[in-house]
Amino acid sequence: MDNVSSSIYDSLMNPPTLDEWLSTVSSTPNGKASGPSMITYKMLKHLGTRTSALLLNLIQACLSKADIPTYGDKQ
Q1: Which candidate, 23, 9, 73, places its Cα nearest to that of 52?
Q2: Could you name the domain of life of the organism this protein comes from (predicted)?
Q3: What SS3 state is found at 36?
Q4: Is the confidence at residue 23, as pLDDT, over 80?
Q5: pTM of the shown model
Q6: Is 43 left (phi over 0), alpha (psi -120 to 50) or beta?
Q7: How many Cα neighbours within 13 Å face the side chain of 15?
Q8: Does residue 74 sit within a domain?
């Protein structure tokens, strides 16, 4: 493994772009159970581009601060 450059991991923790986010959301299956947030894939697919961008900004902020809210978190 000495010939594998460690730079292949440089972009691993980069936040997703809006295009990557929209592509991921569009490829998720409908009809799956929601998580604790009660947000379903179908709901995410019905968001407009501006709302998806706002949600992505929130997700990116949570990831960069390593502060992921939990269901029912009052803080």
Answers
A1: 23
A2: Eukaryota
A3: coil
A4: yes
A5: 0.70
A6: alpha
A7: 15
A8: no
